[in-house]
Amino acid sequence: MKEFSCHKISEGLAKGEILISKDDFCFYLVDPKTGIVIEPQHCLYGKSIAGKILVFPNGKGSSVVQADGMYQLKMTGMEPKAMIIKNPDTTLVASAIIMETPLVDKAEASFYETVNDGDLAEVDAARGKIIIL
Predict the structure, then answer these.
(1) Which listed residue (5, 21, 62, 95) is catalytic?
(2) Does residue 76 register a pLDDT over 90?
């Protein structure tokens, strides 16, 4: 078990499998029925973000498509359990708070050197902790 500090953006506690995106992320380009990324050139193309702890550098797309994409995923239960982002933007922050999805940033540099796809982790936004189990 390894513990890393982070900064809380949106409150919550979640446990799940890590899914890492090296590409910026647009929630509108995810199938809301399956949680599968449908953006052809994206590194996560064909993979599901449903129930995962999504690690990604930045959001992308307009505020409308980001918020609507997150909303559609939430309504079908295909949203990520939590998100760890390097560079949050206003739209993602507001959407995560409204959708009650834990969102953190400012993870220790060693987190990014340690974490791998498929690791089981817990995000405790209130305590500012990411724990690799």
Answers:
(1) 62
(2) yes
